[in-house]
Amino acid sequence: MYLSTRGNIDAQTSAQAIALGMVPQGGLFVPQEIPCVDWKQYANCSYAELALQIMKLYCGDLPAGTLEEAVKVYGDGRFDTSNPAPLVEVGGCGMLELWHGPTAAFKDMALQVLPYLLTASIKELGLDVEVLILTATSGDTGKAALDGFKDVPGTRIVVFYPDGGVSAVQERQMVTTGGGNTFVVAVNGNFDECQTAVKKIFSSEELRQKLNANHMVFSSANSINWGRLLPQIVYYFWAYLEAVRLGRTAAEEKINIVVPTGNFGNILAAYYAKRMGLPLGKLICASNKNNVLTDFFTAGTYESNRPFYLTSSPSMDILISSNFERFLFEVSGRDAGKTSSWFQRLSSEGKFSVDPDTLTACRENMIAGWTDEEGVFETIKKVYEEDNYLLDPHTAVAMKVYNDYRENSGDKTFTVLTSTASPFKFAQSVLTAIAGDSYRECGPWEALTRLSALTGWDIPSGLQGLREKPAQKVYRCQPEEITAYLERKFLKD
Ligand SMILES: *Cc1c(COP(=O)(O)O)cnc(C)c1O
Predict the structure, then answer these.
(1) Taking every annotated instance into account, which residue ranges of this chain make up the domain Threonine synthase N-terminal (predicted)?
(2) What is the Cα–Cα distance from 149 to 168, expressed in whole angstroms?
(3) Residue 237: count of CB within 10 angstroms of its CB
(4) From CA 168, how far away is CA 215, in angstroms rounded?
(5) Residue 151: φ, ψ to 5°
(6) Which residue among 2, 93, 111, 248 has its CA within the 20 to 30 Å range from the CA of 153?
């Protein structure tokens, strides 16, 4: 069963939690119990088998066969490697490459599976409805969600992205998805404004009723949906098993994890994996110049009223990090009263402070650091020159923060970085970093081929031929016009 972080709804089954996406009155679903397991029992599992075993622990109520069907995505050719999450060694640490899926970002690890979980949840609940999936994106979630839900019967998906706030490649990827059930909206605002607008729609009782009258329900493909987080827990187990198989760590010895963080979903999955008994040491939360989380870990105050920066790692350009609510709920001893007051204050006043005990608990569980753009570009260059390996700007944030951590702490523990995007997704930045400013003028499409020519790395198949593909129409609007758009587009009355 699943509880609300704000204690404002009865315990729900996994089908209900996944179908709803978030608690309608505000709040996020968390598992009532976190199962403890012995990682060794999975030593001989394929990735798909591991995913099945882990996900089973959390959604036993889904119709028989759902998970078996869902995990086939990891072995049916849609990932361009037979191992969907290879761990490669780079400069003494482990790079967990999570971008071998169809859209070349780690979001595929979960968003290829979520459509199976969501449609099965609707079926389990006996609902004869169509699901209208609303998704805010800072770039990568949008494409991965569109791709995952494209032509899935019983679903329609609308993606909202910040106009001008995503890369040319990301935008092109989104508008070339095709499929009869996908819609793309460019919002005149930043990611936080998109996400806040979408959350508001979820909590509008009036819209919910109108939707129901049209035999539809809302759900979410953002990591506020538990169905997004669950498949992400799997790859931390996989990383550990791979580290043992590669002889980089002894069985039961802890490894550290570094995650380039935006909405806090990826690192939260690492936290849950650790709670499940996986031998993880330090969890390191790496941010770009939008360093709201680093400041929180320093001072105990979460302050979203601050300058917003567009950086070379757009998927981390986030000031309201949704899943942080789940983390604070957990480390405060599952105090729904406190969690609720913090996050209500965040939405009304733009900030909140936690008590010293909670801050201590946060720091016991996680370390936070950040880097500026210079650090990102230098790191991409250095790693390319020293290790002949290409980092995308998000992964470079993680690498820089980790290098700083290792230098300051002297911690020699084997460390795994989650590599969240193919460098080709951000080819202009990567090319500029490794080959200098003369490439700054190079357009986004030319950058792809130049980067490939220069390095000998292949352009991922999902990014090939993008420029020529037919584009669908994008609707452009203000954040406050989203509701009217949805009503016009999807509701008859
Ligand atoms: C989404 C994304 C992130 C941030 O992940 P969160 O789960 O939102 O913290 C980092 N890097 C890339 C490339 C992403 O697409």
Answers:
(1) 2-71
(2) 22
(3) 21
(4) 36
(5) 60, 20
(6) 2
Q: How many CB atoms lie within 10 A of CB 170?
A: 26
Nearest protein CA to atom 15 of ligand 1, as residue: 140
**Strand runs (DSSP E) across 356-423, as ranges?**
367-370, 415-419
Distance CA 86, CA 80 (A): 11
**pLDDT at residue 493 above 70?**
no
* Type of residue numbered 74: Y
CA distances from 476 to 187, 364, 384, 479, 489 (A): 6, 44, 39, 10, 14
Given a contact cutoff of 8 angstroms between Cβ atoms, the answer to whether 219 and 226 are in contact is: no
Contacts (Cβ under 8 Å, ≥6 apart) of 457: 390, 423, 424, 451
Taking the C-alpha atoms of residue 123 and residue 129, their distance in angstroms, rounded to an integer, is 9
What residue ranges define each of the domains in the chain, with the CATH number in brackets?
87-101+232-423 (3.40.50.1100)
Check pocket membership of 418 for ligand 1, CB cut-off 6 A: no
Q: Within 10 Å of residue 411's Cβ, how many Cβ atoms?
A: 15
The confidence band for 75, taking pLDDT boundaries of 50, 70 and 90, is very high
67-to-115, 259, 350 alpha-carbon distances in Å: 11, 27, 40
- pLDDT of residue 269 exceeding 80: yes
Find out whether the beta carbon of 136 lies less than 6 Å from any atom of ligand 1: no
Q: Is 358 in contact with 325 (CB distance < 8 Å)?
A: no
pLDDT range class, residue 294, cuts 50, 70, 90: very high
Residue 438 tokens, joined = 């003369």
What residue type is assigned to position 474 of the chain?
Answer: V
What gap in Å lies between CA 348 and CA 339, rounded to an integer?
14
Ligand 1 centroid to residue 128 C-alpha, Å: 34
